[in-house]
Write a structure and sequence with these properties.
alpha/beta, TIM Barrel, eight-stranded parallel beta barrel, 8 strands, 17% strand
Length: 206
């Protein structure tokens, strides 16, 4: 399936999700490889899951793991990029063997100038920024305008929940680098409900 915007699906932990999302045209799948996460996966599990899919970028999510261990896992699992949950010094980022994305949290009352400074300072070190979780309440019209401006300056990935109703129209208006979805758990091995995810992919179908 061809989509109007790249889609990243986070937290892949089962074969059903991996094969379904790849088949629906997802651009990238993320795997939690850092033991700091309660639901982290072993590199052997990631290798097994990724062996069943093709044509997608494999991204590892990391929090506190040292860069040398991130690099080792990136090579072992054939990662194309990493998604970092925490800010790291520039010298550490320079040691990474694959491009890095930075996970950010939307802070509704954050001063716009501070947001501009944060993105501007970190942009040289990252391939993009991921704001995967939409806030409650959703950004107001003025904030959406600023979000659109940032999307034009930086590679900004947004969670599907940022769209108040029509995701396709939101994507066309804001112009993010991509849309982020969240993977889920199987009901039992080989059985998974994809109704909600399917509705999102259908909205984004080209």
């Amino acid at each position: 399936m061809s989509l109007i915007v790249p889609v990243m699906v986070r937290g892949i932990n089962n074969l059903s999700d991996a094969r379904y999302c790849a088949g629906m045209g997802a651009d990238s799948l993320t795997f939690r490889l850092d033991p700091a996460f309660a639901d982290y996966l072993t590199p052997e599990t990631v290798q097994e899951l990724s062996g069943w899919v093709a044509g997608v970028q494999l991204i590892g999510e990391f929090d506190t793991l040292p860069v040398d261990q991130i690099n080792a896992l990136a090579q072992q699992c054939g990662l194309h990029a990493v998604l970092l949950h925490r800010r790291r010094p520039a010298d550490e980022l320079a040691e990474l063997l694959v491009p890095a994305l930075r996970l950010l949290t939307w802070i509704p009352d954050m001063v716009p100038e501070d947001v501009d400074l944060l993105l501007r300072e970190q942009a040289p070190h990252f391939a993009g920024f991921v704001i995967a979780t939409a806030p409650d309440p959703l950004p107001n019209p003025a904030e959406v305008i600023r979000l659109t401006e940032h999307a034009r300056l930086y590679h900004l990935w947004l969670g599907a929940g940022f769209a108040p109703d029509n995701l396709r129209a939101y994507v066309e208006a804001v112009g993010p680098a991509g849309i982020v979805l969240q993977g889920g758990d199987e009901i039992k091995p080989g059985l998974r409900d994809f109704d909600e995810m399917e509705a999102v992919f259908e909205q984004l179908e080209d």
